[in-house]
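Tip: read the tokens left to right.
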């Protein structure tokens, strides 16, 4: 059985979203995932902190074809309220079907999804995509580290 494991911590800009609006927004984000089947996991948690405008999601859901679409929908709901003048790593999404981890970043109020894929000739390629579908690919060396991944996300922001 295929599943998605979503692990995100998102802090929204207190100046852009009031407490009342934040509560409604967090509830809408949680509702997106609530009707998906849980995957066997010892811990599932979704929560929010009103004072700091933080939404936390740590869940595993059965991938039934719509789970990834629902993830993108929930990220689109919060994208314009993110506080992200500097690059922030929001978390990751693991997809069991492709055995791939997708890192989630925010930079200048745009959310980016980044993963490493094997390109032509067995070389590694970093694939970066924003929620509007614009994407950039970079050939990378074998010894890629997190700092390089973050740097290429910033470069992708200015290219797309």
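Filled-in amino acids:
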């Amino acid at each position: 059985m295929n599943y998605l494991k979503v692990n995100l911590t998102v802090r929204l800009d207190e100046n852009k979203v009031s407490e009342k609006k934040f509560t409604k927004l967090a509830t809408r984000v949680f509702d997106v995932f609530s009707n998906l089947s849980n995957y066997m996991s010892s811990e599932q948690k979704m929560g929010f902190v009103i004072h700091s405008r933080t939404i936390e999601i740590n869940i595993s859901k059965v991938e039934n074809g719509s789970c990834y679409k629902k993830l993108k929908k929930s990220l689109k709901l919060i994208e314009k309220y993110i506080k992200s003048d500097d690059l922030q790593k929001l978390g990751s999404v693991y997809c069991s079907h492709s055995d791939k981890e997708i890192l989630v970043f925010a930079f200048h109020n745009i959310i980016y999804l980044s993963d490493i894929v094997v390109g032509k000739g067995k070389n590694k390629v970093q694939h970066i995509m924003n929620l509007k579908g614009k994407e950039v690919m970079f050939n990378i060396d074998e010894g890629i580290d997190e700092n390089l991944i973050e740097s290429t996300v910033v470069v992708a922001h200015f290219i797309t």
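Residues 3-159 form one domain. DSSP finds three helices and eight strands in the chain.
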